[in-house]
Amino acid sequence: MEIKELRLKPIGELDSILHDLRKKREDLEFKSKQNQLKKVRDLRVVKKDIAQVLTVLKEKK
Q1: CB 25: neighbour CB atoms within 10 A?
Q2: Backbone phi and psi for residue 17, each to the nearest 5 degrees, phi listed first
Q3: Would you say 16 and 55 are in contact if contact means Cβ atoms under 8 Å apart?
Q4: What is the pLDDT of residues 11-42, one digit of tens each?
Q5: d(CA 5, CA 33)
Q6: What is the count of structural domains for the chain?
Q7: How many Cα atoms occupy the beta-carbon half-sphere of 40 within 13 Å?
Q8: What is the pTM of this model?
Q9: Which DSSP state fits 38?
């Protein structure tokens, strides 16, 4: 997800994206602890996406 795309979205949509990403991170962390996660990099990518969404939200507020 590009930060340029995120800046064009309204706050409500960013909140829903953030909620979905946090849910995805939770699932990936659970799978990681169970040794069922094939690509550990996915967890890092989701954390980066969460940080970008939070940055854009703070810029808009």
Answers
A1: 17
A2: -65, -45
A3: no
A4: 999 999 999 999 999 999 999 999 888 898 99
A5: 33
A6: 1
A7: 4
A8: 0.89
A9: S
